[in-house]
Structure to design on (279 residues):
């Protein structure tokens, strides 16, 4: 079963590297990649023990980050790739998405909750990512943007602390 | 599953029954085309039934906002019906829940149009 799934994912992604606690994908800059990234994130989150609501939130956060990477970072350029890493540390599920674009301008991210932006048709992706994850680190550079999404795993000290709140 | 939409008419109101996912790409385009089609037929009182929509991303949210403002700018009204918990929660955290006129009873919703 597991072997069959890995074969499927190898077919979906160009490169696939897996160690015990870490899996890494290199993806094309396509809409299909966005769907595949979300599905893979949801599966890994479920396997890490998150409940259905958290699986949905993690999947959506990864989807939004993948959309940013494919559309805004790499601008659908077939020569540019998106890398997607999942790592399970002791307490956290850490998901890293990198593109090869010009680098996100952190000073130019509007607040989608501001009254003047409420009826804008875009600009909610980063906000949703920050809403759904425990920690979000964005590192733009002239060779691309890296965004790290962190969620405390259920049963870990941090995850248990949140569950009891 | 991408989004599917079918339209029916009740008392001059266009009820669009949506199902599936409203996401970047096909889902958002289906919603956009459906609303444009209704407006082109001068059907400007639109009730979007989202009862079978189980997933929506930021692009889908943007498409809902776009549909709302486009209909309003043409002198019409667009309301939402039967939000699932996931969609309800998303509209809450994006502060759009109070922007849209949201109903949970179809008959009441139909009567609420001017």
């Amino acid at each position: 079963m597991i072997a069959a799934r890995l074969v499927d994912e190898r077919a979906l992604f160009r490169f696939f590297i897996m160690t015990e606690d870490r899996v890494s994908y290199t993806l094309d800059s396509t809409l299909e990649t966005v769907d595949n990234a979300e599905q893979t994130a949801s599966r890994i989150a479920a396997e890490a023990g998150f409940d259905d609501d958290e699986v949905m939130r993690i999947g959506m956060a990864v989807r939004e980050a993948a959309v940013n990477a494919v559309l805004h970072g790499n601008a659908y350029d077939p020569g540019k790739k998106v890398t997607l890493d999942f790592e399970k540390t002791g307490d956290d599920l850490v998901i890293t998405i990198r593109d090869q674009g010009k680098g996100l301008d952190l000073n130019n991210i509007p607040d989608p909750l501001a009254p003047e932006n409420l009826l804008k048709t875009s600009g909610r992706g980063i906000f949703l990512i920050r809403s759904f994850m425990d920690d979000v680190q964005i590192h733009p550079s002239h060779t691309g943007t890296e965004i790290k999404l962190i969620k405390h795993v259920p049963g870990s000290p941090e995850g248990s602390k949140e569950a009891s709140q | 599953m991408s989004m599917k939409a079918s339209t029916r008419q009740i008392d001059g109101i266009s009820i669009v029954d949506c199902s599936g996912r409203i996401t970047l790409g096909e889902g958002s385009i289906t919603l956009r085309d459906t609303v444009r089609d209704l407006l082109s037929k001068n059907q400007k009182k639109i009730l979007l039934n989202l009862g079978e929509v189980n997933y929506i991303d930021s692009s889908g949210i943007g498409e809902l906002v776009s549909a709302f403002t486009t209909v309003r700018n043409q002198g019409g009204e667009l309301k939402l019906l039967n939000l699932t918990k996931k969609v309800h929660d998303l509209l809450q955290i994006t502060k759009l829940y109070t922007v849209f006129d949201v109903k949970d009873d179809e008959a009441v919703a139909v009567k609420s149009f001017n």
About this structure: Chain A has a mean pLDDT of 87. The interface with chain B takes residues 31, 34, 56, 60, 63-64, 67, 71, 112-113, 118-122, 124-125, 127-128, 131 of chain A (CB under 8 Å).
